[in-house]
Each structure stands twice: as C-alpha cells, then as structure tokens.
Amino acid sequence: HETDYEVKDKVYTLNELELPPNMEKSIVCIKETVSDVIQDGKTPILIGGEHTITYGASLAFGKDVAFLIFDAHADFKRDMLGVEVNHASVSRLISQTKDVLIAGVRSLNLNELEEIKKRKMEMIYAEEINSTAKINELLKKLRGKKIYISVDMDVFDPSIAPGVGTPQPNGINYETFLGLLKKVTAASEVVGADINEMRPFSDGKTTEILAAKIIEDLIALIEKRASKRRST
Fold first, then answer.
1. Is 9 marked within a binding site?
2. Model pTM greater than 0.85?
3. Is 79 marked as binding a ligand?
4. Which of the 8 DSSP states describes residue 153?
5. How far is the CA of 166 from the CAs of 26, 155, 212, 220, in angstroms?
6. 203 is in an annotated binding site
7. Rounded to an integer, what is the distance from CA 229 to the centroid of its chain?
8. Mean pLDDT by 10 residues, the chain (232 residues)
9. Is position 51 annotated in a ligand binding site?
10. Domains of the chain
11. Is 152 within any annotated ligand binding site?
12. How far is 141 from 191, CA to CA, in rounded Å?
C-alpha cells in the first residue's frame, strides 16, 4: 500500500444527507451533522458535491483548526451574482474565522490576489507545488496544529480528473499530491476532511476512481498517525 498502512475497520458510512433546497438551511444541516460526528469522537470525511460543503463543515470546528484547501481556484470572491455563500467564495468565508492555506492554485483574479495578500495568507501556486522551500514553509505553519483538509478535485490535471465542474489545465498529479499529503499528515493532526466538486462525465469513471483513492489513502494516513501516537 502506498501509505504503508491498511485500515481494516473503523470506517462507518452515513446515509447520504438530504439537504433542503435552501443554501442557509443546507449549511446548517451540514454543520449539525459534522458536529454530531465530532462529538461522537470520530473524524468526519465529507464527499461532495459543491465546495460549499467545506464552509458548512468549518462551522462545526473551533478557531484552533486550520484549513488546508487544495484547489485550482483561490475561491476568494466576495460573491457570485450577488450571492455571498457560494463555491467561489469558500476560502474567503472560512478565513473570516479560521487560518486558511491554499495549495495548487492556477486561477484567480486581481481582487482575490489583493485580498489574500492583505490578509497575509499562505497560497501555493500549482507551479510551486514541488518547491522544497514553499512546502517546508507550509509544513512549518501546520506543524503540531489541528487541520482540516479540503480537496477540490479540480486541483488535479484534467488528464487524470476530467470529471469536475470547472477544470483548469496544468494541474498537479497524484504522486505529488500524495507525497505532500504524507508530509502534512505526519506533521499535523487531521481532524476532518472532504472531497468535493466531482462531476463525473462518461470518462470511464477515471475521476471517481481517483476520488476513491484519495479517500482510501487519507483515511490510512490519518489512522497511521493516530496509531503511532497510541503506541507512544
């Protein structure tokens, strides 16, 4: 196994949430469900769906939890067509109450860039994802912290993840992603995660298989770290 660890049990799948046809109520529903999972002593992993699920999940965590968001887009817009809570504003919304770090970006506008610089946030462009200096800087900021990992599937190159809502060329590959994931999970305590923005087309289930692989490896890495802590 690529993570050197196999999870044989400890995984429980909830029934799919039936969200109301209203954004505010849907956000509350996601928050309450994630809160229940946390209170039960478990690690929530969400599968979506629109990236707005991450905002709903964020409301269930305290300010001490940092959010590491893998995304081709900065998602720092003030609104979309006059609507503040939307998939293009997720990072900005979460950053109002939490530390947010974004990796894999290759699409943002000048207003988003100015806002990110003003808040002195950490953002790693896709072309910098293999930079040792950049990754070490990221790990330094995350070391010892509780973190939530959000993976927008469009962070990957469309050649390996074509089934997404807003694909962007020149994305990262899975080898690079997994290598970074191993370092992050070794340095930090992952308390939650989500996989989002998957929109499968007739691509031979390529994107679905990749999403399933991410979930499998992420669960294994979370449990691997927890197992080491229990044995010390």
1. no
2. yes
3. no
4. G
5. 22, 10, 20, 29
6. no
7. 24
8. 70 90 92 97 93 95 97 84 72 93 95 91 94 94 97 96 93 97 96 93 84 95 80 65
9. yes
10. 44-231 (3.40.800.10)
11. yes
12. 16
